[in-house]
Amino acid sequence: MVRTTVLLLALLVASGCGKPEAAKEAARVAESAKPPVDRFPELRDVPEEDREVMRAVRERLAAKDPRYRAKIEDRQRLVSPAPPGFVPKREGRAIELRVVVRDRVLRRGENFWYRLEVQNVGSENVPWYENFFKRVGTGEPSWEYRLIEPDGRETELRGGPFFADLGDPFGAGTQLVFPEDWSEKRIEAELKRIAEQGAADSELHLTLYPGETVETAPWRFVPREEALERRRRGLPERPELSGRFREFTTRYRFERPGTYRLKVVWDQIGQEGFSVEEAERIAAKYGVNPESLLRYNKQGFGRVESNVAVFEVVP
After folding, report:
1. Whole-model pTM?
2. Bridge pairing between strands 303-314 and 105-107
3. What CA–CA distance (Å, rounded) separates 71 from 252?
4. In percent, how much of the chain has pLDDT > 70?
């Protein structure tokens, strides 16, 4: 099986001559050749005698449901396994947050590139639903980017812009136009497919097993002129990126030379969370169950601070 997979991968790469579709197909073949517990980590919790049946069920789900397929692809792309010999640092649910900057030296006025990493350092699984790790954005306001300037003053960076204003140069608008011979049933099915694919492309649903680390996907700002040119050539407005860093676009300008220090803080409800009185008051106001709010206390991590990343700005 392994030899057949290697041969097939070689043929795909050779025949594709580096084309993106050949690379994607090679990645798909490599992913399908993984052992079931690596392709579907949730099978770790399934008795070994039942794994083959459950694997087949998940394979069918991945073939039919773009959201389930996205979960597999997101895990493959964004999650790294526990390091060898990993030992949980504490019992229960616990995470560590790290920020890594790509360049130790910036020219004045440049944006910095960075990566966020969140590792499950506890003994229990951690669900991870922070969508901006997959797509675009900084996670504000619950994610804060604290910058200490060369003179010691602290400021909070605000991310954006994230998209160029393309207007509507071709008069296309956002209206979907279907062939005249399509039935209402077929149109409804297509609209449903588009909605499900949109959710799969934008939402992140992962489970981090003890020791595993999730990191932000690469991203960069695409200027208006570049996006329009790509559209004219029939290409996606956003090119696919390699590497492991994303650009932090901000209206803050790094004009002052010197040493800067960056810390990221995730302030999530949890641990201290809601008191019983607060839960009852909020539940009465919004018509929800106070028990659900109190359960949420146990799911959150409270205030999580990263390491401090240091970089220099030069003229």
Report:
1. 0.75
2. parallel
3. 35
4. 79
Nearest CA to 211 out of 95, 125, 120 is that of 120
pLDDT of 20 reads 46
How do the domains of the chain map onto residue ranges?
88-162+184-218+243-314
Which of these CATH numbers, 1.10.490.10, 3.30.930.10, 2.60.40.2360, 2.40.50.180, describes 88-162+184-218+243-314? Answer: 2.60.40.2360
- Give the three-state DSSP class for 172: coil
How many angstroms separate the CA atoms of 163 and 226, rounded?
12
**The residue count for the chain:** 315
Q: What Rg value do the Cα atoms of the chain yield, rounded?
A: 23
Burial of 71 (0-12, 13-18, 19+ CB in 10 A): buried
Rounded to whole angstroms, the Cα distance separating 28 from 210 reads 26
For the residues of 214-266, what is the DSSP string, one character each?
EEPPPB----HHHHHHHHHTT--SS----SS-EE--BS----S-EEEEEEEEE
Question: Is residue 306 a contact partner of residue 263, using CB atoms and an 8 Å limit?
Answer: yes
Q: Please, are residues 266 and 98 in contact by the beta-carbon 8 Å criterion?
A: no
- Give the C-alpha separation, 206 to 312, whole Å: 35
- What DSSP character marks residue 271? T
pLDDT digits (tens, 9 = 90+) for 98-125: 999 999 999 999 999 999 999 999 999 9
Answer whether residue 210 shows pLDDT above 70.
yes
Which residues have C-beta within 8 Å of that of residue 71, sequence separation ≥ 6?
205, 206
- Whole-angstrom distance, CA of residue 256 vs CA of residue 86: 42
Convert the pLDDT of each residue in 282-305 to its tens digit: 778 777 787 766 665 555 687 899
Please name the helix (run of DSSP H) or strand (run of DSSP E) that holds residue 7, with its range, or none: helix 2-16
